[in-house]
Amino acid sequence: MTGGLDPETIVFFENRPTALSEARVGILTHALNFGTGVFEGIRGYWNEPENQLFLIRAREHFLRWKQNCGILRIEVPLSIAELGALAADLVRRNGFRGDVYIKPLAYKSSQQIGIHTDDQSAFAIVPMPAPAYLDSSKGLQACVASWRRIEDNAIPGRAKICGSYVNGVLASDEARRNGFDEAILLTEAGHVAEGASCNIFLVRQGKLITPPASENILEGITRDSVMELARKELHREVTERPVDRSELYVCDEMFFTGTMVEVAPVIRVDHRPVGSGQIGPVTAELRHLYTHAVRGRLEAYRHWLMPVYEAVAKEVDERDEALARKE
Ligand SMILES: Cc1ncc(COP(=O)(O)O)c(C=O)c1O
User: Fold this and answer.
1) Which long-range contacts (CB under 8 A, 24 or more apart) does 225-229 make?
2) Is the CB of 227 under 6 A from ligand 1?
3) Residues 315-323: what's their mean pLDDT?
4) pLDDT of residue 321
């Protein structure tokens, strides 16, 4: 009933914290029938030495959410700062002390039969312990999907619109049934767009290449983080440009990025080895850097992190200061 989650999990629904088991919508809800919702996915990583949980790039996620809600004319009535505070409050209420995943969802909430929509909308935020996801530690096997990536002028792929995920569901279901871990979708023009639920990077002659926002991709926040790490920490060139399908077969390295997959190496594509068929050195370095950054171990990227347990951190500081005064 509650997707394997504790039904007592405290979520935000109908403008108040409530138990997950109580957070229900009616069968005629517009979003359920027509896919008119916009969601987000935010990770939080537990940092044991600091006794702290950090939400990763929460501001960017909430900004993207609010902007994309605008495409469907859904208004989220809280500021980005208020949404961040609300997400942190929910994590604290649940007392999560481990990695988490937070799912905000805004949706057309009127109960009606027809497709025409009014201005009635609602939003919810569901925090949960981080679910198990694709294990990419040994590298993934990918395939090009027979399904094409949705066009911006049909359903904008840059928004995490619920209905648009049918596209990724069809592609990833096909990939998995054919024995692959993940699908790669091409645009109608035949260019590489992205994975079913992640962005894609290739490495050729030491340079990183990724399709631009205009190729119907979701403008991934992990993609952005990885581009920054590649440029600033590895001093690598990163180019956003259209990518041909056949470049998948001749590149040296390939990896996916996303909140859930993090930095996931691809070692085979369409039954061909990617480069040496092993996880490549650039991918391995970026994966390492990304993990360190989100775990709060890289000072230069601490601004990506939003601490949840500020009171705890403050208490620890105050306790340490008091101890220092005694010494
Ligand atoms: C279709 C799609 N592309 C890309 C991504 C990666 O985006 P982000 O790094 O912001 O999670 C996701 C996951 O959110 C996705 O669903």
Assistant:
1) 225/57, 225/257, 225/290, 225/293, 225/301, 225/304, 226/201, 226/257, 226/263, 226/286, 226/290, 229/286, 229/289, 229/290, 229/293, 229/301
2) no
3) 58
4) 66
Mean pLDDT of 161-177: 98
Six-digit token pair at 54? 């950090």
- Any ligand 1 atom below 6 A from CB of 287: no
Distance (Å, rounded) from C-alpha 81 to C-alpha 87? 10
Percent of the chain with pLDDT over 90: 90
pLDDT in tens, 26-76: 999 999 999 999 999 999 999 999 999 999 999 999 999 999 999 999 999
Mutate to test the pocket of ligand 1, among 199, 255, 286 (most ligand atoms within 8 A of CB): 199
For ligand 1, is residue 221 a contact (CB within 6 Å)? yes
What is the residue with the minimal CA distance to atom 5 of ligand 1?
Answer: 198
What pTM was estimated for this model as a whole? Answer: 0.93
Query: So which residues are the catalytic ones?
Result: 160
Confidence of residue 133 (pLDDT cuts 50, 70, 90): confident
Q: How far, rounded to the nearest angstrom, does the alpha carbon of residue 120 sit from its chain's CA centroid?
A: 27
How far apart are the C-alpha atoms of 77 and 38, rounded to whole Å? Answer: 14
Host H or E run for residue 165: helix 165-177
E strand residue ranges, the chain = 10-13, 16-19, 37-39, 42-47, 52-56, 100-108, 121-129, 140-148, 182-186, 192-195, 199-204, 207-210, 238-240, 253-258, 262-269, 272-273, 305-307
Query: How many A from CA of 175 to the centre of ligand 1?
Result: 18
Contact 215 CB / ligand 1 (< 6 Å): no
